[in-house]
Design brief:
Layout (H helix, E strand, L loop, with lengths): L7 E10 L10 H16 L3 E4 L18 E8 L2 H8 L2 H8 L1 H4 L8 E7 L6 H14 L25
Length: 161
């Protein structure tokens, strides 16, 4: 069975405000889990790409100019494959412990959006989508897993385009 070429892929960003420095004993379990969890993501059905520096993760990549924020950004085939990864195995265990490591923040810290197949989003693009979600709530430009929009409604890479 042949599939038509995919026109869009799902970009996701989530940021978190650290309670402690990354090299602190309090964050050891989280830091130690980064490589194994990233390896599972990389091998997951539907995984396309993830943001990483030379260290293999993105913990040293600046977001919003705030050294206490860390970023995770990836591209997936669709919301189903992202959800399947998020809520299974070691990633699920980390989600259950997130309050130990990260501050509780009222504003949106995660956003999803559709990108043209093959596009790799930038941190600036992710920041723009998060700010849009915070200001306008879920729209086809930036949305959440709880309130998602189909790829057919994807809005161009930049609002100014």
């Amino acid at each position: 069975m042949t599939h038509a070429p995919v026109a869009h892929e799902l970009a996701q960003v989530n940021i978190a405000r650290l309670k402690f420095p990354l090299d602190s004993p309090e964050l050891k379990d989280f830091v130690d889990a980064l490589d194994p969890v990233n390896a599972v993501a990389d091998a997951s059905d539907g995984f396309v790409w993830r943001l990483q520096s030379d260290d293999g993760n993105a913990t040293d990549i600046a977001v919003f100019g705030d050294e206490w924020l860390i970023i995770n950004m990836s591209v997936w085939r669709n919301t189903d494959t992202l959800t399947a990864f998020m809520y299974q195995g070691q990633h699920r265990e980390l989600l259950a412990r997130r309050r130990e490591w990260f501050e509780r923040v009222s504003e949106a810290m995660a956003a999803l959006w559709w990108v043209p197949a093959g596009h790799r989003p930038t941190v600036a693009e992710a920041e723009e989508r998060l700010l849009h979600l915070r200001e306008h709530g879920p729209t086809p430009y930036a949305f959440t897993l709880r309130t998602s929009f189909p790829a057919q409604e994807a809005v161009a890479v930049s609002r100014s385009a």
